[in-house]
Design brief:
TIM Barrel; Rossmann fold; FAD/NAD(P)-binding domain; 3 domains; eight-stranded parallel barrel; five-stranded parallel β-sheet; 20 helices
């Protein structure tokens, strides 16, 4: 059964006193004001949708980190409403034993464990989806849903109540009903997805009826003492969607119907502001919605939306914009975020960088979720809880201080190896430091600053402005050489490129300031590097044409991150061409075909190469004839994105 309420204790002695003040939620008490929001992580269930050790250890790691309350994401209440194939299934009593094991694993850590109950409606990734009306989702999930018959709607409401009862019986402390983000309940609320002409459609009272019936059914089956929260949208951010005015009308009704807290979010599939924004979006982007809702109710209100810095979280509580703060991706990146904040160890927090690549993009591709900066996500059940010291410490030389080299050096040093890290540049960071320069990308520096702080507290011999030489190898005498030397843009063999009157440079040279770009720039490439460079140049007032030989742009970015970049590129100064075949570079332009149509552009002064990259491995030649083993990681192994760099660095550090 759920936990007995405790008395509210004295405020914790902490650097952030409001964050760590207890709060009563229904009949429960949370030890602090931090809620881990539900995330559909897409791993950790078996073929029947029952929770496995993988998901249990993932949740337990977050409980150990000190969060007050946390939610398992995407618990499906009915077979027609499974959003993704690898999420918990709650529509049969046989789900209870595995949930009980999870609850028992979390209980010793004094963290309240809840399940978010959801029905995906038209935003489900299968062919049996149902919805209030037969209207397809505006993005991502494909296919037209079947409109629910009038007699089926009470069945769906009852499915929420039955799932809540199963969670209660399994020993979970609370549940949260997902009434936001364009899922089934949200679809009933919004005029653009609910075109019904019966008692569930049309007026505000009719469109909110299903949500209130869901809450009523849960209360009837779970009783008045079981804690029930509601996640609701303050804004859908889409034409014809649910808006703040109606949210403010609904909030008091939910309170009267027995909701114990309101968790205020925003967005649906296809909205102009995504439910999970990338680094381009300001921190705290949805706080104003929670603040508005809080003025209408007496129950606790939870704020969410790119809240990753403890100073902002504390400020939300101090300014009474909300009663609790929800963290999602921040607790993927660092499960120990709460404990580190409580003890003032802010520089040791491994930061979310808002790239959406492992946590969101992978899941949308129906792959297990993860985290670019934290390779341990989803592997908690396979790894020891603490870094294990090396059985036989070795002398290790890490060449290159980009993210792969930094990750390797940190892990090797943590395990007790003697580590020398050298880089021929004057600063650490490699190409990632350059990638952080364009507009909206500065958050990439956060992970570099984290590694710098970590290495400063470890016995790593860091040598900058230091190229690999025979003398260095003789001095260090490494037993293991880790080459994390990165990659550079390749120079294509295209007619006229070497004879053009335009200045020719690479994306790394331009971002580093080694090569200046003129007023009229051709960018060869359509990947992430090419597009963020184009955005940077346009922001400086230059006219830019992007020539992409592929059919799609920036496929190496997450869809969420790419969406905001593409919106930026729609402003003046940038023209995009895809399916490009260059026939020849001219004196001041290019002769090319795009999708079969031949064109000629003139009046340009600069060509920037950003299409393909080649690994830098020359340093390996210096190790020949020496007994040291050589390892390639990151772009030195193969040019790819950041997720591989950090994971390969840490993996090698664990393996040696």
């Amino acid at each position: 059964m759920h936990r007995r309420p405790k008395s509210i204790g004295a405020m914790a002695n902490t650097h952030f006193p409001l964050l760590f003040q207890p709060i009563r939620i229904g009949r429960l008490e949370s030890k602090n004001r931090l809620l881990m929001s539900a995330m559909s992580i897409h791993f950790g269930v078996d073929e029947r949708g029952h929770v496995t050790e993988q998901l249990t250890r993932y949740m337990e790691a977050r409980a150990q980190g000190g969060v007050g309350m946390m939610l398992v994401g995407g618990g499906g209440v009915h077979p027609t409403g499974v959003e993704l194939p690898h999420l918990p299934a709650l529509w049969e009593d046989d789900c209870i034993p595995s949930l009980t094991k999870m609850a028992q694993a979390v209980k010793p850590h004094d963290t309240l464990l809840g399940m978010q109950l959801m029905h995906g409606g038209r935003q489900s990734y299968h062919d049996l989806k149902v919805a209030p009306s037969a209207i397809p989702a505006p993005a991502l999930a494909k296919g037209i849903p079947r409109a629910l018959r009038l007699d089926e709607i009470p069945v769906m409401a009852a499915a929420f109540g039955d799932a809540a009862r199963r969670c209660r019986d399994a020993g979970l402390d609370f549940i949260e009903v997902h009434g936001a983000h364009g899922y089934l309940i949200s679809q009933f609320l919004a005029p653009n997805s609910n075109r019904r002409n019966d008692r569930y459609g049309g007026s505000f009272e009719n469109r909110t009826r299903f949500m209130l019936e869901v809450l009523e059914d849960i209360r009837r089956k779970c009783g008045p003492d079981f804690t029930v929260g509601i996640r609701m949208n303050g804004e859908d951010y889409i034409e014809g969607g649910w808006g703040l005015e109606e949210a403010l009308r609904l909030a008091p009704l939910l309170e009267q119907a027995g909701a114990d807290y309101l968790h205020v979010s925003a967005g649906v599939y296809g909205s102009r502001q995504l439910t999970i924004p990338s680094m381009y979006v300001e921190h705290g982007c949805f706080i104003h919605l929670a603040e508005a809702v809080k003025r209408t109710v007496a129950i606790p209100v939870v704020a969410v939306g790119r809240i990753k810095r403890p100073e902002m979280a504390e400020g939300i509580l101090r300014d009474r914009k909300a009663d609790m703060v929800a963290l999602g991706r921040s607790l993927l990146a660092d499960p120990q975020w709460p404990n580190k904040v409580k003890h003032g160890s802010l520089r040791s927090i491994r930061p979310c960088i808002g790239c959406c690549l492992g946590c969101i993009h992978a899941v949308f591709q129906l792959e297990p979720g993860g985290c670019v900066v934290n390779p341990d996500v989803g592997r908690e059940y396979l790894l020891p809880q603490a870094v294990e010291p090396a059985a036989a410490p070795r002398r290790c030389l890490v060449v290159g201080s980009g993210p792969a080299g930094l990750a390797a050096a940190r892990m090797l040093a943590l395990r007790g190896h003697a580590v020398t890290l050298c880089d021929q540049q004057a600063e650490t960071g490699g190409a990632l430091r350059l990638a952080a320069k364009p507009p909206g990308r500065s958050e990439l520096m956060d992970i570099l600053n984290y590694f710098a702080a970590e290495l400063a507290g470890l016995a790593v011999d860091l040598r900058l402005n230091c190229a690999v030489t025979a003398e260095l190898l003789q001095e260090v005498d490494p037993e293991e050489v880790i080459l994390a030397t990165g990659s550079l843009p390749d120079t294509p063999m295209i007619k006229g490129l070497l004879r053009t009157g335009m200045q020719v440079g690479t994306v790394t040279e331009v971002l580093a300031g080694v090569q200046a770009a003129g007023a009229h720039v051709l960018v060869w490439g359509g990947n992430q590097a090419a597009l963020v460079l184009a955005d940077d140049l346009a922001a400086k007032g230059k006219n830019v044409v992007v020539l992409n030989r592929r059919d799609h742009f920036a496929e190496d970015m997450s869809s969420n991150d790419r969406y905001y970049l593409r919106e930026r590129l729609k402003r003046g100064g940038i023209v995009l061409h895809k399916n490009v075949q260059i026939h020849s570079f001219l004196e001041d332009g290019v002769d090319f075909s795009s999708s079969g149509r031949r064109q000629e552009l003139r009046g340009f002064d600069t060509v920037v190469l950003a299409d393909t990259f080649v690994s830098l491995r020359e340093a390996a030649n210096l190790t020949k004839g020496r007994p040291a083993r050589v390892h390639f990681i990151g772009d030195a192994k193969q040019p790819r994105h950041l997720m591989y760099a950090i994971s390969e660095g840490e993996e090698l550090g664990r393996a040696l």
